[in-house]
Structure prediction request, 234 residues.
Amino acid sequence: AQSVTQPDIHITVSEGASLELRCNYSYGATPYLFWYVQSPGQGLQLLLKYFSGDTLVQGIKGFEAEFKRSQSSFNLRKPSVHWSDAAEYFCAVYYNQGGKLIFGQGTELSVKP
Amino acid sequence: GAVVSQHPSRVICKSGTSVKIECRSLDFQATTMFWYRQFPKQSLMLMATSNEGSKATYEQGVEKDKFLINHASLTLSTLTVTSAHPEDSSFYICSAHGTSGGGSSSTDTQYFGPGTRLTVL
Prediction:
C-alpha cells in the first residue's frame, strides 16, 4: 500500500542553521512527490513538487528537495532557516488512482532565536 | 495563480444545526476538488473526492448523509455538515485540482484553501 513517512514529529533548529526534513515513501510506480507547509490555523501552501527530470527540485522560500529513488526518499532542505519558517511541514505522494494525495504525519519545525 | 478560497474561515454553531462551507477556485477551473478534515497536531484526513457534475466519492468511514458534498460548477464545491454535533468540530480544508487558466498545466497538483474552523457548541 502507498504510504508516506516523516520520521521526525518535531524538529528545533537555530535561526541561520541549515535544515533537513526527512520523507520516505512507499509507492509502486514513479511517484509524484510534494512538500507543503502549513502555518497555524492556515491551509497548506505548496513549497515544491517533483514529477520527473532533475532530481534536485527548487521551491519557494529558498527550499529545495532531492528525490532519491534508491532510498525512496524526498528530503526537504534549506541552507539557512529564518524564524518565519516555523510551521508544520507535510510531505505527500500523489496516488494517481483517483488523484488523491497521501500525506505524511507532518513535521513541526520550531526555530530558536 | 492557482488560488483557492474557502468561506467562512470560522463558524460557530449550535448542536443540531447544519453548516455549509464553500470552496472556490478563483483563477482556474477545478475538475476535481477534495475535502479534508484535520484534527489538532495531526495530518490531513481525506474525507471525499468531488468531481464536477457527479456524485462525490467518500472515503471509508465518512458518513455520506452527514457530510453532503456538491460540486455544481468547475469553480465551486460545497460541504454541508448536517445536524452538526460537538464531535464534528474540526478544521476543514478543501483543495482543487485542475488546469490553470493561462494554458499552463497544473494538473496533478492540488492547491489548498485556507481552511474553515468549525466549532459546534
Q: What stands out?
A: The radius of gyration of chain A is 13 Å. The CA atoms of residues 94 and 101 of chain A lie 5 Å apart. Chain A is about 0% helix and 55% strand. Chain A touches chain B through 23 residues (CB under 8 Å).
